[in-house]
Write a structure and sequence with these properties.
The chain is of the alpha/beta class. The chain contains 27 helices and 17 strands. Bound molecules: adenosine-5'-triphosphate and magnesium ion. The site of adenosine-5'-triphosphate has 18 residues, from α2. It catalyses: ATP + H2O = ADP + phosphate + H(+); Couples ATP hydrolysis with the unwinding of duplex DNA by translocating in the 3'-5' direction.
């Protein structure tokens, strides 16, 4: 006999259940009013949404006709898995039977791309349009900027990346250029007219070549539905539209939803205004606050008050943080998960100690049975993780990073380390190739000639001196040659690294728009390098090319491998871990010194801290290094700040924490994960020598 259908919704609380059942028994599917679930972190909004998907399908809705919009592809996958599990049981399927799939789940952008491929011919777009990623779009913007001669004529014309941000903000916020400039880029206001010309050229060029950038995916989708017939067709096609993290949608996305479901019937959105953290991408928290009144009849609003994620002490501390926010939709949250462990506020001397403390604690918890995967380290900005990444690499602790490139894999860090590598081993062709290519006028052929000369040479310095560079590269070659000669001569640690960075700086400026930030990164490497005894140790302990190099979602190591999660707070949205470590909770970083301007920005930084803290289920450590390195201010000289604890953690918040000062810290020997006893890959390679 087939297994009996279980009531998989039995564990929902009454409010969650009423959201799941909304509209199902009243007027059938068509006449129902829209639904808004607005509630605090960890109250089961995402779970409720997944349950509603399962319930709709159980009651006969066609999975093809459900549109599920989430904030990342990862979140969409997770939601589909959750709903699938429930459906499996709710439908009483056998173990071998798969639950129905949800073909239309994903991000706004992903779904937009698929719809546009399908509807392209009907709106005069080539179905084989090319999608530009962010870097492509920047390049295209850069080309137009050059073609119009803007880079030269106007003094300090914004960089191509900034131009794209301005453009993007206007599109996503559905706002006029002058407004965007006034509010967010006031220093660009003088070139308002030039920017307008640039954007026109950019748009024309995209259309000429049939290119779409990310914003176009939303823009064309919205445009598509400005045609009443097409809007009705799509609205009919998707019987139910469900959106998670609605507080971080922008106006264009809200427009899309409104055109899709003008009466709001069949529309379900869930979110938490206290977790709105994407206004820099033109997200509009008013979308969620004003949602109910947009429709007639108005949306049904369900509030959830029970938090199932965090222990009482963690919840209290997070509530204390958000209670100090200026404006918010008042919410109460309670939990029955008592615990005697309070969150920790850990003061450490500097970022190096911070990295050690976190690595120690992560391993300690792992010893106690908490897998690395159940722990996460969160930070405000990707580069703040750099010292920790180096520490983890040194100790052989595997990790993946979300929301930014791994530090050791970023171009500029690799460039500099390659110079050192090459000096350490002048036979190294890979490093040699990479380094020589940095010189302007040095093509692949010359690079090959150089490394061919260096590799077999008994005296590499001699080979360097004898080498004849291509004419165009004569000057830049001399500088590199002298640098290498001195590095090959004898190792002086860490001065070697300093001289490499000094040599590299002008190239950095030539190659990258954001040279100052990258230079600051490199200075951080120099600083960290001082902790390594010698050049050789530095190079061997920081594997340049980790085998499972994985800085994006696609590159996650194998399923049952264990690894620590490193993530920006922005990318940690909606997720939860048993243990959470929050780095650099100091002023200048949280709030970021880039945001200390407007009150609204400060408030967003406060919400960011709230999001970070509410990711923790059982253990939470908030780190406060007393000395802190400020990347963004590197241009202005003083780089080490004597940091003070974040302004979001005043006395009345801190009393919810256990304080751990430098005095209480144990100076235990640093544990490491065992390195493999032998490098099998190396042996296999040897077999071919
Ligand atoms: P966030 O605002 O961070 O996105 P959320 O409101 O979406 O949080 P969920 O992620 O859905 O919250 O749920 C948080 C945790 O609580 C999850 O582990 C979930 O399984 C659990 N949970 C939610 N509702 C219940 C319930 N009724 N019974 C048991 N566990 C629940
Ligand atoms: Mg959620």
């Amino acid at each position: 006999a087939p297994p009996r259908a279980a009531d998989v919704f039995a564990d929902l609380n009454p409010e969650q259940r009423s959201a799941v059942e909304h509209g199902l028994d009243e007027h059938g599917v068509r006449g129902q009013s829209p639904l808004l679930v607005i509630a605090g972190a960890g109250s089961g909004k995402t779970k409720t949404l997944a349950a509603r998907v399962a319930r709709l399908i159980q009651s006969g809705a066609d999975p093809q006709r459900l549109l599920l919009l989430t904030f990342s592809r990862r979140a969409a996958g997770e939601m589909e898995r959750r709903a699938g599990r429930m459906l499996h049981r709710a439908l009483g399927l056998r173990a071998t039977q798969a639950p129905p799939r949800l073909p239309w789940s994903g991000t706004f952008h992903g779904v937009g791309a698929r719809l546009l491929r399908e509807y392209a011919p009907r709106i005069g777009l080539a179905p084989n349009f090319t999608l530009l990623d962010r870097a492509d779009a920047e390049d295209l913007m850069g080309l137009q900027r050059q073609a119009l001669g803007l880079a030269e004529t106007a003094e300090r014309f914004p960089l191509k990346a900034t131009c794209l941000s301005i453009y993007s903000r206007a599109i996503n916020g559905e706002s006029r250029l002058d407004q965007v400039l006034q509010e967010h880029f006031p220093w660009c206001f003088p070139v308002h007219d030039e920017l307008k010309r640039l954007f026109k050229a950019y748009v024309e060029e995209k259309q000429r070549q049939q290119l779409l950038d990310y914003d176009d995916l939303l823009l064309y989708w919205a445009e598509l539905m400005s045609d009443d017939r097409l809007a009705a067709e799509l609205g009919d096609r998707f019987q139910h539209v469900l959106v998670d993290e609605y507080q971080d949608t922008n106006r264009l996305q809200a427009t899309i939803l409104r055109r899709l479901k003008p009466s709001g019937g069949g529309l379900t959105v869930v979110g938490d205004d206290a977790q709105a953290i994407y206004s820099f991408r033109a997200a509009e928290v008013r979308n969620i606050l004003e949602f109910p009144a947009q429709f007639d009849p108005p949306a049904r609003v369900v509030a959830l008050e029970r938090n199932y994620r965090s222990t009482q002490p963690i919840l209290e501390a997070s509530n204390a943080v958000i209670a100090m926010a200026r404006e918010r939709h008042e919410k109460r949250l309670w939990t029955d998960r008592a615990s005697s462990e309070r969150p920790q506020l850990v003061t450490v001397e500097d970022e190096a100690r911070q990295a050690q403390w976190v690595a120690d604690k992560v391993l300690e918890r792992r010893e106690q049975g908490l897998r690395l995967k159940r722990q996460a380290v969160l930070f405000r900005t990707s580069s703040h993780a750099a010292p920790l990444e180096l520490e983890l690499t040194r100790r052989n602790i595997p990790f993946v990073k979300f929301g930014g490139l791994k530090f050791l894999e970023s171009t500029h860090v690799k460039d500099v380390l390659s110079v050192l590598r090459w000096a350490e081993n002048p036979r190294g062709r890979l490093a040699g190739f990479r380094v020589s290519q940095l010189l302007p006028g040095f093509g692949p052929a010359s690079a090959r000639r150089l490394i061919d000369a260096m590799a077999p040479a008994a005296d590499p310095v001699q080979a360097l001196r004898a080498f004849e560079p291509p004419r165009a590269a004569a000057a830049s070659w001399t500088a590199l040659r002298d640098l290498l000669a001195s590095l090959i001569g004898d190792a002086q640690w860490p001065m070697d690294l300093e001289s490499v960075v000094e040599w590299y700086a002008p190239h950095l400026e030539r190659l990258h728009d954001d040279a100052p930030v990258r230079l600051a990164d490199l200075e951080q490497v120099v600083r960290i390098a001082q902790g390594f005894g010698s050049r050789e140790r530095f190079l061997t302990e920081l594997t340049l090319d980790p085998p499972e190099a994985s800085s994006d979602e696609s590159g996650i190591p194998l399923k049952d491998e264990d690894y620590l999660i490193l993530s920006t707070i922005h990318s940690a949205k909606g997720q939860e871990w048993n243990a959470v470590y929050l780095l650099n909770c100091v002023d200048g970083c949280m709030p970021s010194d880039l945001s200390t301007g407007a009150q609204a920005q400060i408030e967003e930084e406060r919400r960011l801290l709230y999001v970070a803290m509410t990711r923790a289920k059982e253990h939470l450590a908030v780190m406060v290094p007393q000395r802190f390195y400020v990347t963004q201010q590197a241009r202005h000289g003083d780089r080490h700040l004597h940091a003070s604890v974040s302004r979001f953690l005043p006395g009345k918040v801190v009393r919810h924490f256990d304080k751990l000062g430098p005095a209480n810290q144990t100076q235990a020997a640093l544990p490491e994960l065992a390195r493999p006893a032998m490098d099998v890959a190396a042996r296999l390679r040897k077999a071919w020598d």
